[in-house]
Amino acid sequence: MTENENDDSTDAVEDGRRPLPPGEVLRTARAEFTDLTGLRAESVSRFERTGDGWALEVEVLELERVPDTMSLMASYEVTLDGEGHLTGYRRIHRYERGRADPSRRG
After folding, report:
1. 88 in Cβ contact with 78 (< 8 Å)
2. Are 89 and 97 in contact (CB under 8 A)?
3. Would residue 5 count as lying in a domain?
């Protein structure tokens, strides 16, 4: 890396902020998502740094049914700013817990 090239961590140090650890970003995102929606994230299936923040895909239980394999789950795309605070979310997929979706990869 040359003297003129900067990465995100260098920029954060120069303006007095230290980069947030990924675990802290995840904890904050899950808590804010739950506060806003009332839905609890069961898992995070995607977590990546974007140019101006973070992007996550969280899996939530939307409707509990018996048996559990018939419960309705949903995937939400969650966006965060550079400080790790939620800036938006949208549901991108709904599915029954016990069924694979052949139209989705991964």
Report:
1. yes
2. no
3. no
The C-alpha angle with vertex 50 and arms to 49 and 52, in degrees rounded to 5, equals 115
Q: Are 77 and 90 in contact (CB under 8 A)?
A: yes
CATH code (residue 32): 3.10.450
Domain carrying residue 67: 20-96
Taking the model in full, what pTM does it have?
Answer: 0.75
Rounded distance between C-alpha atoms, residue 13 and residue 60, angstroms: 35
Residue the block writes with tokens 């989705």: 104
For 30-45, write each residue's pLDDT tens digit: 999 999 999 999 999 9
- Would residue 8 count as lying in a domain? no
Place of tokens 């550079």: 82
| Residue 44, strand partner residues | 58
Counted domains in the chain = 1
